[in-house]
Design goal:
alpha/beta, Rossmann fold, Dihydrodipicolinate Reductase, domain 2, 6-stranded parallel β-sheet, 10 helices, binds nicotinamide-adenine-dinucleotide
């Protein structure tokens, strides 16, 4: 096998910047068959000193505060865009136009128009594009999809997708970019519901129309005193308004005729990453909870009523599980999903054809989020038009 190196860069070094960087480093450990070895050539981060610190700790060859230097750097062949949502469009389009393959975080901008602009730039320049919809990479989620597609639960009738978290529940959670419409977009819609839409589509196909209700439960937060990363606390600072949604509840009609409920909330006290789904069919059901990532609840058979639910521990036959553990019921973690995502992105680059998530998936998800916003404003059912 001929192995070549691929110069990669990371733009925005908060939580996701770190996770993408570690995923690049780990891909050759888990996927030695990949004929590409990522080399960390540049990191861009606007907070003074943060890029240098990342370079020192993770081994990037260079550090800058200006992402435009990354776009102009001929050593960089692929870029992770892990900066806040409001920068996705500008940076994503610029990187694609500069001929860089693009691994960009969800939700890809603030609106479907933003996601579409990045998708168009990727298509026009012929680079590969991948999006951070990591939950579909869980081997158990892939197993669930296979099981549904094989008709093991009969015809899908309805599903529930939930994404409940407490990351914004603390009243002293700082007023970061996440809570501003201009920089964070539609709040929990982009943060969590975007993942839910992708999971729903991955399992059940396209969403035809939806109706939604949204709410803000923590209307004011304290402005942070300095630079933030992740979910920083602030107290005593000047209060400012939360401009985007804490909660969305949504009814879905799939193109298949199946019905769904999607609910996402970022201020759910008592819920830590309670992400998952229940999919019901005419003969069975399949259930998944992110916090027990390698388990599926499966009910199948011909019992219909009182039919038991079994716990299935997925193993090496499911998705990319075999790249991590040799037997079922060995735990995998969140970061492993990003290693799988990095592998699929790099495999797309190596083979010149998409493998895994694409910008098209981001456009579909963003179109559903736009439809949720419109529905919440008008109180009507809205078609999802990617
Ligand atoms: N896939 C997932 O599960 C997942 C999880 C969390 C976040 N995300 C997404 O990842 C993105 C980043 O989220 P995060 O949690 O890492 O946020 P974060 O606040 O921890 O990190 C963002 C970083 O970008 C930097 N930045 C801001 N402006 C910049 C600029 N002009 N140039 C370079 N760097 C800049 C910030 O200083 C910060 O260090 C968001 O789009 C978010 O939706 C995805």
């Amino acid at each position: 096998m001929v192995v070549r190196t691929l110069g990669v860069a990371v733009v925005g070094f908060g939580w996701m910047g770190r996770v993408h960087t570690q995923a690049y480093a780990r891909v050759p450990h888990h996927f030695p068959q990949l004929p590409l070895r990522p080399r960390l050539v540049a990191v861009a981060e606007e907070v003074p000193g943060r890029a240098e610190e990342a370079a020192e700790r993770f081994g990037f060859a260079s550090a800058t505060r200006d992402w435009r230097e990354v776009a102009a750097d001929p050593r960089v062949e692929a870029v992770s865009v892990t900066a806040p949502n409001f920068l996705h469009r500008e940076i994503g389009v610029a990187m694609a136009e500069a001929g860089k393959h693009l691994w960009i975080e969800k939700p890809v901008g603030l609106t479907a128009a933003d996601a579409r602009a990045v998708a168009d730039a990727v298509a026009a320049s012929g680079v590969q594009g991948a999006v951070g919809f990591n939950y579909r990479n869980a081997p158990a989620v892939e197993a669930a999809r296979d099981l549904i597609a094989a008709g093991e639960i009969g015809t899908v009738t309805h599903a529930r997708v939930r994404l409940f978290s407490d990351y914004a529940a603390h009243p002293e959670g700082a007023l970061t970019w996440r809570y501003e419409r201009a920089r964070g977009g539609s709040g929990v819609l982009g943060d969590l519901a975007s993942h839910g839409v992708d999971l729903a589509r991955f399992l059940l196909g396209d969403i035809a129309e939806l109706t939604a209700d949204t709410a803000v439960f923590v209307p004011e937060r304290a402005r942070p005193a300095g630079a933030t990363a992740g979910h920083t606390r602030a107290s005593g600072g000047e209060l400012g308004p939360v401009e985007n949604e804490d909660y969305v509840g949504c009814l879905l009609r799939f193109a298949s005729g199946a019905r769904g409920v999607l609910e996402a909330c970022r201020v759910s006290v008592g819920e830590q990453n309670n992400y998952g789904f229940e999919v019901h069919g005419t003969r069975g059901a399949v259930l998944w909870d992110f916090r027990r990532m390698n388990e599926l609840g499966v009910s199948r058979g011909t019992g219909y009523q009182d039919q038991p639910v079994s716990t299935v521990y997925v193993g090496p036959g499911a998705g990319e599980y075999a790249a991590f553990q040799p037997g079922a019921a060995n735990a995998m973690g969140y970061d492993d999903l990003k290693v799988i995502e990095a592998y699929r992105f790099l495999r797309s680059v190596a083979e010149g054809t998409p493998y895994g998530t694409t910008l098209g998936d981001a456009v579909h998800s963003a179109a559903a989020l736009d439809a949720m916003t419109r529905s919440a404003e008008t109180g009507t059912w809205v078609s999802v038009r990617p």
